[in-house]
Amino acid sequence: MENKGFKSGFVTLIGRPNVGKSTLMNQIIGQKIAIMSDKAQTTRNKIQGVYTRPDAQIVFMDTPGVHKPKHALGDFMVKTAYSAIQGVDAVLVLVNAAEKMGPGDRFVLDRVRDLKIPVCLVVNKIDLIDKTQLMPIIDQYTQEYPFDEVFPISALTGESVDRLLERLVELMPQGPQYYPADQVVDHPEYFLVSELIREQVLFRTREEVPHSVAVSVQSMQKNEEDEVEVLATIIVERKSQKGILIGAQGKMIKEIKRGAKREIEALLGSKVYLDLWVKVQKNWRDRQSQLNDFGYRPDDY
Asked: Is 105 annotated among the ligand-binding residues?
């Protein structure tokens, strides 16, 4: 039964890579549901985080950073981001206060220009700047686009995120509770586990390796010791990348496994036995059948 006076809606986070969309999502939800790293294009899929309180529920959509695609995977990511601004109740355009406005930011603004819903500017990472710099930054963006609201925040520290949430609840229409109060993400555990493994690869590798990696979780089941046994494969595009991920005497893959095991145990609230393999599949980012296998499907737009 619909709760009288209850408000609910959908809000999309959009922006160029590395502006802090996933960090904001995790801050709002209060736990880690989206992986983070300092590498561009960390988020590849649309991830829905569910924020619920007694009087409202907002489903936030974290999207891949908008960039110029160089392969079929990049094309999938950008189309995913654009599709997520359709049929929602508000859009948050995130920008990085510590970096100058660039062509990528203007590109995002062009994409939201014709929307007939509230479009808010979220100036993130204000913890990295002197507060006297804030007004000139806001002025620059508001001259480019007539935002409905402007929110300077720090997704990392949580500064002013409560104010943003209060205003978003006010902007939402009256509606039903779409998800149970204890559900915080729309993706199954398989997906979250594969993302936590990929996050460890992003932490430890550089150059082309992070962008060439996919993770496939083959199985997850409880064993006799009440541990969750996870069998997963890291896919790369070249033999040299496989060598980097395994490392001398298997040192790198052990570190990835150790870090991922810790994060997966925190997610599942259970002891985990992680069996991790590395496999080469040439040019998987340009093959639609393999993109489908790894969860990057056009029907997800």
From this structure: no
